[in-house]
Amino acid sequence: MQRILLPAGVAVVATGLLTAGLSGTSRAFGDISQDSMARDTADAVSVASFWLASNGAALRSATPYTWNAGQIRKVVSKGGHDPDGKPGTTAPISDSRPAAIAAQNVNLPKTVGKVFFVDGSGRFRWCSGTSIQSNYRNLVSTAGHCVYDTAADRAVMDKWVFVPGYYQGRAPWGIYVGEQAFTHYDFEAYEDHDRDYAFVTVYNGIHLNAAKQVNRRDYQGFTGPKRAWGGRYYLLLSKDAGRLGDNVGGQGFAWNQPAGRTVRAFGYPAARHPDGDRPYGGVTPKQCHGRTTAKALGASWLKIEDHLGLKCAVTPGFDGGPWLLNYDNSKRLGYVNGTTSTFADQDGNDRVDYITSPYFDGETEAVYDAAKNVWTDKIVGPDGELYR
């Protein structure tokens, strides 16, 4: 892994410029950056209401967070991968329900879903992500560029939520509002895609439960989603969906693993290939299966020196999705050992045929460790109101 270092004087100037251009609260501890998203339950209420309004209209209108076609090129083989310590794993957690019967077909993991946010240009976007094991069962793994808005020079994307099992505007296990984002300092500060991964703590999920007609006074005092039409006033009552990991489980985590291992990658592809062809609709998750590249891959235009590659003809929208090592098809669980970061055209025919992921090493594990111990709250009260 090539670290980006600046002379001390230059580093101070660069850090000041970056801080001036970023919104939100950002703190760096060594190699770890920590940023607030929805800072409290009032912020979380606002975010949840935004995506739940009009029966999830904003969710349905979102588009994949696409790459510039000029960045989809051939990636270059480098040397081998050098772990910075001993291999390690954190075991996955199930959702405490009976495991599905084993089948020859691939059982899609319940943990995988869509990450939704508003980018710096105001557009509704999505990436992919997964629930991952944590002490409070409240953690999402995704790509750094699906959390940090490098294009708009902001700390984090706006109105960030995770929807596991998303399907055509539906959220079967609820919507989970992001509370804090953790990534490697080199990604947030320098956009170094060798560190293009992030872990986000989320509040308890929420479900829309029912609509209740009320008088105008109660309508005006209600703190959740609501609608008025035809002289009538309705409250869109919510209920607490519980913790993310309790509902869908959480994938394990693995670092400093040897390259060349077999993985399954999952995500929601939808954008066009560079040649204009659009084979995916982004409605349901897709998967790829194969061995990762034994040699490191590089892409100088994204400061990449040490990525893994996987032969996989998916398109943007898939980014942020997990690469699962030792995937158990009956339990639908494995170990997150990568996350889709970039897309590559290795044979030069203007179609994506490779995806790449940062190599997960001890520094990745340090970012994960910082995130997995953070507690989050619920945002729905006992009467269906959203907390303020």
TrEMBL record:
It comes from the Bacteria. Keywords: Signal. The keyword rRNA processing does not apply. Gene3D superfamilies: Trypsin-like serine proteases. Transmembrane segments: none annotated. The keyword Signal applies. Residues 76-96 are annotated as: Disordered. This is V8-like Glu-specific endopeptidase.
